[in-house]
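Before relying on records like the one below, remember that each one covers exactly one chain. Contacts with other chains, cofactors or solvent are not represented anywhere in the record.
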Amino acid sequence: MKYNYHTHTARCFHAVGTDEEYVVEAIKAGFDEIGFADHSPWNFKDFVSGMRMHENELGEYCLSVKGLREKYADKISIKLGLECEYFPKYMPWLKEMLEKHEMDYIILGHHFCDDEPGSLYNGQLTEVSQLYRYRDDIIEAMETGLFSYVAHPDIFMRGYPGFDEHCEKISLEIIEKAIETNTPLEYNLLGFSHSLNDGKQGYPYPDFWRLVAEKKPPVTMGIDAHQPEAYADSVLYQKGLDALSELGLSLVPSVKMLR
């Protein structure tokens, strides 16, 4: 089955296109199943994020995806999800929303630790202590069993100066927890495209994926689509598959759903 569960929408302020345009492009590209996992709103107090839908947009987002699911049911399977951080203090609210809107899945995209307001983006970590905090959150999140997979698990290497012994240690611990909990790690095609096009090495980070190749946790691949045309890039998609094949890795046939 050809799938992608990492699709954003214009509601997050850094993606473009209508929801339906993503579906149409996915159908043209021969996908069997896709999932919308736009950046989750959170029940913030006195803070408005510039990188995620507002809390009052969640209902409309869910209705839009469910409507497209019905409209294109004979052509493609569509799942409803969110890309979420692991914020323990907001998890009760999130669980309530998952039930209320009958969502199919969530993926772990851990951009911040603790909370978003005043927090450092996890793609800009420069200190050892920050690495270990990231590790702790990722491991605790996987232990909840809520997340279908970990998006860009190696995001910490986007800003960290080099793959040192601390990076290797936390990478191995994340990989081992992925094996223990049967939680796939995502090979992120948006990051892959950046490294191919501008030469800046972020994620997928080669040394992280070298360890993945050695330990063999479950692996998935995400387009991380921020524009409908991302689904049409069959060359990049195949390059991602080839990169994983060279590492001796193959994609899980599917990811777990909440319902």
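The first strand starts at residue 3 and ends at 4.
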